[in-house]
Amino acid sequence: MIIAVDASGGEYSPHEIVKGAVKAAQDYKIGIALVGKKDILHVQASRYMKKLDINIVDASEVIGDEESPIEAVIKKQKSSIVVGIDLVKRDQASAFVSAGSTGAVMYAAFTMLGRVEGIERPAIGSIITINIASPFLLLDCGANPNCRPKHLLQFAQMGNIYVREVFGVPSPRIALLNNGEEEKKGNQLAREVYQLLKASDLNFIGNIEGQSLPKGMADVVVTDGFTGNIVLKTLEGVGEAFLKLKNVSQEHSNASRKESRDMQFDVGFGAMVKRIDYRESGGACLLGLNGNVIISHGRSQAKAIRNAIGMAKQSVDRNVCQIIQQYKFIEPDPPMTETNDEQST
User: Which structural domain range is residue 324 located in?
Assistant: First the structure.
C-alpha cells in the first residue's frame, strides 16, 4: 500500500507534513509518496528513505488557498494536488492525503477520478468523537451547500457503508440533523429527506437535534453541506477554546500541586479536549468518488497528518471505495410531503 501525501499543502508544509508522513510510515508499515518540490523534500526526508518505504514525487507548483480552485487546478498541472490525485487515478497510490486548498482538492478529485455511478454529489464525511464510546460520522461537511433531498439520501447510504466497514457496526443508526425530533419539523428539505430515509432500507432512527449530538444516539448524522460545515467549525472552535483553558489549568496545577482536586479536574478536562481535537481524527473522507481522498485541516501538523494517513489506510484496508462503487444507487420516488410550513423551533 502506498499513500500519496501532499507535502506542499497546508500552513506547516513541508516540515510538519514530512514529520507526520514519516511517523505514519513507521507506525502503519506502509509506503508513502511525498508529493512536492523534490529538492526541498530530499533535504527533509532523505535520511528516512533508506530505512522506510518513502519516495518523493516531484511537483513543482503549489496551489494557494487564496487562488480560485478551478482556475488553479486547470493552470497548475504540476501542482502537488493534481500530481497526487493523478497517482491515485493511475493506481500508483491507494489514497491521497492533503492539507492544501480544500476546494482545489475537491475539484481535482471530482474531475480526475470521477463520481461513482449513480452518485450525484460526493460528500465530505468527518468522524466526530465528542462521545468517545460512540463516535459518529457527520456528512456532508462542506462539499454541497445547496442540496436536494436525494443527495442527502445518498449521503446516508455512503455513510452507512463507511461506518459499517470501518467502525464494524452491522446496522449503523442513521439520523437526520434537524431543529426538532418530530417527523414534520424543519424546512421543506428536511421534511422531504425524512420521508426518503424513512422509506429506505437504512436503519433510520429519525431526527436528531444539535444538543443531542454528544449523546451517542446515532452512528451517522446527515445534513446539507452548509449546515454540516457550520457544525464542524463550531466544534473545532470549542475544541480550541477548551485547549486554551486546559493549558491554563495545567499552569495553575503546576503552580499549586497541593490541591489534588485541580489535578483530577485537569485529567478529566484533558480527556474531553482530546475528544474534540481535530488532530485526533486527522481529516475528513471524500466519499462518492472513484478513489480514496482524505482532506486534512489547513493547520495540520505532524500528529494530524499521521492520523489522516491512518484514516486513508483504514479506507483502503476496508475497501470502502469499492463497496460504494458496487452499491446500487436507485433514483428514489418523490416524497409525499405537506406544503404547510411547520419549522417552528
Answer: 117-282+305-345
Angle at 94 (CA atoms; ends 90, 99), nearest 5 degrees: 100
Within 8 A by CB and 6+ apart from 179, the residues are 185, 186, 190, 209, 343, 345
> Residue 106, Cα to own-chain centre: how many angstroms?
12
Dump strand ranges (E) for the chain: 2-6, 31-36, 54-58, 95-98, 123-128, 136-139, 173-177, 203-208, 220-222, 283-287, 292-296
Q: Would you say 84 and 13 are in contact if contact means Cβ atoms under 8 Å apart? A: no
| CB 8, CB 41: distance < 8 Å | no
Cα–Cα distance list, 44 to 36, 98, 109, 282 (Å)? 11, 18, 27, 22
Mean pLDDT along residues 37-44:
94
Closest CA to 285 of 315, 317, 328: 315
What angle in degrees, to the nearest 10, is found between the helix axes of 38-49 and 15-28? 30
Question: Does one domain contain both 22 and 145?
Answer: no
Ordered DSSP codes for 238-261:
HHHHHHHHHHHHHHHHHH-TT-HH
User: pTM here?
Assistant: 0.86
pLDDT band, very low/low/confident/very high, at 339 (cuts 50, 70, 90): very low
- Supply angle C-alpha 264, 267, 271, rounded to 5: 145
Total domain count for the chain? 2
Q: Are residues 178 and 78 part of one domain?
A: no
Question: Backbone phi, then psi, for 58, in 5-degree steps?
Answer: -70, 130
- Rounded to whole angstroms, the Cα distance separating 326 from 290 reads 11
Q: Which three cell numbers stand for residue 289?
A: 468518488
Q: What is the DSSP string of 300-318?
A: --HHHHHHHHHHHHHHHHT
Q: Is the peptide bond before 214 cis (omega within 30 degrees of 0)?
A: no
Q: Can you tell me whether residue 283 is helix, strand or coil?
A: strand
Mean pLDDT throughout 131-142?
Answer: 89
